[in-house]
Write a structure and sequence with these properties.
The protein has about 475 residues and is α/β, with parallel strands linked by helices. The protein contains 16 helices and 21 strands. It has an 8-stranded parallel barrel, surrounded by 8 helices. A 6-stranded mixed beta sheet has the order 6-5-9-8-7-11, covered by helices on one side. A 5-stranded mixed beta sheet has the order 19-18-17-20-21, with helices on both faces. Helix 1 packs across helix 2, helix 10 packs across helix 12 and helix 13 packs across helix 14. The model has no long low-confidence stretch (mean pLDDT about 95).
Length: about 475
């Protein structure tokens, strides 16, 4: 059976060779991530161009995710590049200090409103919590702190407030320009960093529309406020990313596993795709094999039902990006063998509001209780295969669509495999036969296999699926 869980690989200096990028994609990458926190617009455009060329060469669909930087809440720079802070020492974050003048006593900050967002006894976590400061006093632009946990600190490290509460807008001036670039290069998804509410998602959607695009919006859950508003954020977004780096710092690492499981569950209930990200295979930046802890981490996300798992520096800057993707694919397949990934009680008690939604649910119930080889969903918008994918199953769902946008959106959805198929090119009575022929050409079915086909009476219309039919390959009429 094909792998159901999708893999997102971040591009960077390690993949800036079209031959390496091709190996990365053929190793099992479904979606590539362009990290707009690093690199120039021209570099991202070139990487996207290579991805499209490779996908066309191999006749496969690869999604492109443009990940916005978001508000840059970071330290400025130290004169000596790095310092060593000791526990109990006094240290000042000074919004008015020259950006290059940091020293053992104080350092500048990029986010000038930070002094307005903190108060005495607040805990500030620097460099993903490796250095911890307690706010003692705020005087004008200066935040006077005591070092609670010391360590090495270098330029441009991130700043988080334990419990959240920083007021920086989710979309910066840079992000708004990057949205235009993402639309121009043909991104399929745009990830919004540090959203606090559904309003931030709506703003991003409006900017995408204004730029002439229709990219899906991925909400990156990184703030404590996002956890508080998780239901409305999920509903407003096309997909959600559990971005465990900043989120773990803000809510505390002990709270993170339960929140990850909860977000995955709610996304599946609310029919949205979900991604688990950050440090999944980080040891493989340099090592040839993952740690056992990393194997368990990836496998547990798969067992919980995530749509996709994501690689960051492992592929963007790692020593062997192709091996990392291959290892992650192997772990996903191992987890997917477990029966728990194929058993579902999703929406058994629900009433459906739409005919096509009811068809999707009926199809999955039938497929899971009959010897069905695969499901073929003729789709315009991708909604029917998305609904199908929310039901745990080991049966592949092939989304046949004439829309390249829909096919690329499906690269993120668990258990769904997009294939180019233009229903308008065939007589209605011949569509089932042509669909099965397409499956045979992709070596997905053989004569005698039972297949479920879903489609609408009026072809080429969004939301029109109103029928399912069980057919036998080799005997379709």
């Amino acid at each position: 059976m094909p792998r159901r869980t999708k893999i997102i690989a971040t591009l960077g200096p390690a993949t800036d060779d079209i031959n390496i990028l091709e190996k990365l994609i053929l190793a099992g990458t479904n979606v590539v991530r362009l990290n707009f926190s690093h690199g120039s617009a021209d570099e991202h455009v070139q990487r996207a161009k290579w991805v499209r060329e490779i996908a066309a060469k191999h006749n496969i669909e690869i999604g492109i995710l443009a990940d916005l930087q978001g508000p840059k809440i970071r330290l400025a720079q130290f004169k000596e590049k790095r310092i060593q802070l000791t526990q109990g020492a006094t240290f000042c974050l000074n919004a008015e200090l020259d950006k290059q003048a940091g020293n053992i006593n104080e350092v500048g900050i990029d986010y000038h409103d930070l002094p307005n967002d903190v108060q005495p006894n607040d805990i500030l976590l620097l460099d993903d919590g490796r250095v911890v400061l307690k706010v003692k006093n705020v005087v004008g632009a200066k935040i006077e702190t005591r070092v609670e946990i010391g360590g090495e600190l270098s330029s441009n490290k991130g700043i988080n407030r334990l419990g959240g509460g920083l007021s920086a807008d989710a979309l910066t001036t840079k992000d708004k320009q990057d949205i235009k670039t993402a639309v121009q290069l043909g991104a399929d998804f745009i990830a919004v960093s540090f959203p606090r509410s559904a309003t931030d998602i709506a703003e991003a959607q409006a900017l995408v529309k204004k730029a002439g695009g229709s990219c899906g919006i991925v909400a990156k859950i990184e703030r404590k406020e996002a956890i508080d508003n998780i239901e409305t954020i999920i509903q407003a977004s096309d997909a959600v990313m559990v971005a465990r780096g900043d989120l773990g710092v803000e809510i505390g690492d002990a709270e993170l596993p339960a929140q990850q499981k909860h977000i995955i569950h709610r996304c599946r209930v609310l029919d949205k795709a979900v991604i688990v990200a950050t440090q999944m295979m980080e040891s493989m930046i340099h090592n040839a094999i993952p740690t056992r802890a990393e194997v368990f981490d990836v496998a547990n996300a798969v067992l919980d039902g995530t749509d996709a798992v994501m690689l960051s520096a492992e592929t963007a800057a790692g020593e062997n990006p192709e091996k990392v993707v291959s290892a992650m694919a192997r772990i996903c397949l191992g987890a997917e063998k477990q029966q728990i990934t194929r058993e579902s009680k999703h929406r058994l008690e629900c009433r459906f509001q739409r005919v096509d939604e009811a068809i999707a649910m009926a199809t999955m119930y039938t497929a899971n209780h009959l010897d069905i080889k695969c499901i073929v969903a003729l789709t315009e918008s991708g909604s029917t295969p998305l609904w199908m994918s929310r039901i745990r199953s080991g049966i592949p769902i092939f989304a046949l669509s004439r829309s390249v946008q829909t096919r690329r959106r499906m690269t993120l959805v668990r258990g769904v495999y997009p294939i180019n198929f233009d229903v308008t090119q065939y007589d209605y009575n011949a569509i089932n036969r042509q669909a099965i022929k397409t499956m045979e050409q992709h070596h997905a079915v053989e004569a005698g296999d039972l297949v479920i086909i879903t489609k609408g009476d009026v072809m080429g219309v969004h939301g029109g699926a109103n029928s399912m039919k069980i057919v036998k390959a080799g005997a379709v009429v």
